[in-house]
Amino acid sequence: MASGIDATAGQRQSDDAPQPVVGADGTGALVVVPTFNERDNLPVIVERLQAALPGAHLLVVDDSSPDGTGDIADELARKDAEELAGKDGSAGRVHVMHRKEKDGLGKAYLAGFAWGLARDYPVIVEMDADGSHAPEQLHRLFDAVNAGADLVIGSRYVSGGKLVNWPKHREFLSRGANTYARIALGAKVHDITAGFRAYRRTVLEKIELDTVESAGYCFQIDLAWRTVRAGFDVREVPITFTERELGVSKMSGGVMSEAFTMVARWGIQSRLERLGIVKNR
């Protein structure tokens, strides 16, 4: 179980003031970071996370990176455990999951979620390894969770959100995909494709993760849409999204095509349900 904060605090409270579930130093949160060929970025992101939120735990989910990212993750975990053992005898904050093959961002996150749920973390976070999501801004997501939100999305497209060094064609595709999803689904989420987000464990326990088959861009839309449909409190907070400086993007045309098709299907399904033509799933 995650130390410092009782996992049951993630349940809805009857008091007007919600019970905080994440400590000021990040205690109670598990940050899941999938990796594939991120050997240069991973040490930097781990250092930044620990400097910003020393109480947060990190799970690196590596898909057998050919560049040795998994070995670097193991070394980071070993050093962190040794450092903490010398201070207070506690277990390390950095954990590593090695997967045998690369089969999509969605599957990597699902594996990480399952790992975190089995260990009773009250809050589980999605974050990229490439530096586009700033660990220094994670407190904004945690503040919203502690204020009562069930899912908090770090948004590029709400007031205060920013994009830094992102190619214009990527921004055009991203904004277009979010507008399309918002219209097709009728979801009032401005950045439903965003991959910087914090879930209360109660959300992940309820939205039937074992039935999720989507990946990449579509995975983020899928989980946010499931959360909205389940009646949870979804909020967005502004973040600054910075284009990666090292490595290459994993985005592909196939991922975009999957998202377009799946969103159309979900939108039609939702409208048919509202009309009573089909039953709610």
Shape category:
globular
Radius of gyration: 18 Å
Distance between the termini: 33 Å
- State the helix count: 8
Give the SSE string: EHEHEHEHEEHEHHEEH
Estimate the mean pLDDT confidence: 87
Task: Give the class from helix and strand content and strand pairing.
Answer: alpha/beta
Sheet with most strands: strand arrangement: 3-2-1-4-7-5-8
Annotation, overall tally of beta strands: 9
Percentage beta strand = 5-15%
Indicate the percent of residues in helices: 40-55%
Largest sheet: 7 strands, mixed
Poorly predicted parts: 1-14
Keywords: Glycosyltransferase, Transferase
Organism: Gordonia westfalica
Region (Disordered): 1-23
Protein name: Polyprenol monophosphomannose synthase
Description:
Helix content is 40%, strand content 15%. It is built from eight helices and nine strands. A seven-stranded mixed β-sheet has the order 3-2-1-4-7-5-8, with helices on both faces. The two termini are 33 Å apart. The protein has 281 residues and is α/β, with parallel strands linked by helices. It comes from Gordonia westfalica. Belongs to the glycosyltransferase 2 family. Residues 31-207 form the Glycosyltransferase 2-like domain.
